[in-house]
Amino acid sequence: MHRRIIAPGALAAAVLLLAIPASATPHSPGAPGIGDPYYPAYGNGGYDVSHYDLRLKYQPATDELEGTATLVARTTQELSRFNLDFLLDVSEVRVNGAKASFTTSGEHELEITPKTPLAKDTPVTVVVRYRGVPSSKQAYGFTSWHRTPDGGVAANEPEAAAWWFPSNDHPLDKATYDVSVLVPDGTQAISNGTLQSTSSRLGWTRWNWRSNKPQATYLATLAVGKFDITTGTTESGIPVLNAYSKDLGDHAGAARASIERTGEIADWLAGYFGPYPYNALGGYVPNTTTGYALETQTRPYYSPRQFANGSNVSLVVHEIAHQWYGDDVSLKRWKDIWINEGFARYAQWLWSEHEGEGTAQELADYVYASHPADDPFWTVKPGDPGPENQFDAAVYDRGALAVQALRNEIGDKAFFAILKGWPQKYAYGNASVADFRRYAEEVSGKPLAALFDTWLFQASKPASAAARTASVAKAGGTVSQPRSWKKIAATDGAHGHGEHGNGGHVR
Predict the structure, then answer these.
(1) Which among 133, 91, 98, 148 has a CA at the least distance from the CA of 118?
(2) Which of 112, 225, 284, 485 is least buried, going by the fewest C-beta atoms within 10 A?
(3) Dmax of the chain from CA atoms?
(4) Alpha helices in 20-173 (DSSP H)
(5) What pLDDT digit, counting tens, does each position of 288-308 carry?
């Protein structure tokens, strides 16, 4: 028999190795991205945020913002270092009370190294002190901070947070928010959720807002300026707060005529989508030059330009529909944008029916007939459009076509059960297009893979036979334009919209 002799030192090392718990894996840096193929650097790995406390001071005259952000989080791995997405100038970072070292990298990464490495699945509190001029900061060649004559606004998709607070900037990491903003007397600060209080001292007024349900970072908004504020309550008891810039000029009346119907629309949509998921509601119109609207949670952002031709209630329907489809249930990856936009557009079609200006079927027939087979419209795949086409008109209109095709395939009973059940099944969470297909199959009892593939994932116009089977296109003849179409199309502004909010598309 051959006997192996182990030296005493080696034996001691072996015993020590055996004594180390299996869980004591080496600490490593958190990933600089959350893993979204459309935006690889967006979000971060290694932790999950549950709450943001933002205490800010903003000077409209100079666009200077200073703040202290406190992030309440939990680690998801053994962390030696982690990133936040942020663009302003940082003066101090503390992790669990101790000063941490930090540096910047990439387009918007704030790299933080805590004094002591962090164990997996433990609470962590991160405090970041910062200041800067948001309008002076760019990432990827653009800014998501909109300077106005009397202040500034943070509202954009898929990103806006990095211009005003450090975050894990991806919809997969939703959190609750407290936003407290100090501004000069006579100026208002608008944000998400409920206005908890205001107080004035020495020429400054503090506005305290709370968003008490999970909220994606791009849905957090801040608007500072001089606003007229209206308040009310929906028939179902939800408090409504709307804000209008005092210098909207000729657009003021049309904006109010549209947005003051927010409560009515939310109550109406609840009949299709189930109870409104939040304890606050409203909208705001700052004096920006953008051409898009955005479903910022509980309080959508609207551009004045969208009311240049008069009121547009259909636009408000779109943004309030997002409170269920996009905000309550958020996408898992940005390629899942169809769940947001296809259903918000379809809500506009349902409103058209409600107003007697064209049924959803008539609108579907019109969209199908309006785009010949060689139209580039059909090359955009709503189920995975790519980042360059994420807000293309086809994602909205072809996306709504897919919703109508589903309705016709499974029948109204199952369809409307899905519309109402989906926001409840994934309430305050995230879901994908694949999750939606599985849910639709479960509720309807029908296999739907072929239908979803035809309408969402093929870069071509569905054949007329498939369209007729789905009752989406009329056989032969011309299809007249429904009366609601111009209002619906107007919510898109210029369909050839630029990336990252430089164009005119509703979001």
Answers:
(1) 98
(2) 485
(3) 99
(4) none
(5) 999 999 999 999 999 999 999
Residue 188: strand pairing partners: 225
Name the burial class of residue 315, with classes exposed (0-12), middle (13-18) and buried (19+) by CB atoms within 10 angstroms of its CB.
Answer: buried
Written as one letter, the residue type at 26 is: P
> What percent of the chain shows pLDDT beyond 90?
88
Q: Over 90: is that where the pLDDT of 201 sits?
A: yes
Structure pTM? 0.92
Q: At what angle do helices 337-354 and 313-321 cross, to 10 degrees?
A: 140
Closest CA to 84 of 140, 142, 180, 164: 164
pLDDT tens per residue, range 125-168: 999 999 999 999 999 999 999 999 999 999 999 999 999 999 99
Crossing angle of helices 337-354 and 360-370, rounded to 10°: 120
Domain boundaries, the chain: 330-490
Q: Is 126 exposed, middle or buried (0-12, 13-18, 19+ CB in 10 A)?
A: buried
State whether residue 72 is helix, strand or coil.
Answer: strand
How many angstroms from the chain centroid is the CA of residue 292? 14
DSSP, collapsed to helix, strand or coil, labels residue 352 as: helix
Peptide bond into 158 cis (omega under 30): yes
Q: What is the mean pLDDT of residues 10-29?
A: 53
Grouping H, G, I as helix, E, B as strand and the rest as coil, residue 428 is coil
Q: 330-490 in CATH: which number?
A: 1.10.390.10
Count how many residues are written for the chain.
507
The distance in angstroms from the start CA to the end CA of the chain is 77
Beta bridge partners of 194: 210
User: Which contacts of 258-263 are long-range, i.e. CB under 8 A and separated by 24 or more positions?
Assistant: 258/302, 258/307, 258/311, 258/312, 258/313, 258/315, 258/316, 259/283, 259/285, 259/302, 259/316, 260/230, 261/313, 261/316, 262/316, 262/320, 263/232, 263/233, 263/234, 263/235, 263/238
Q: Report the phi/psi class of residue 78: left, alpha or beta, with left for phi > 0 and alpha for psi in -120 to 50.
A: beta
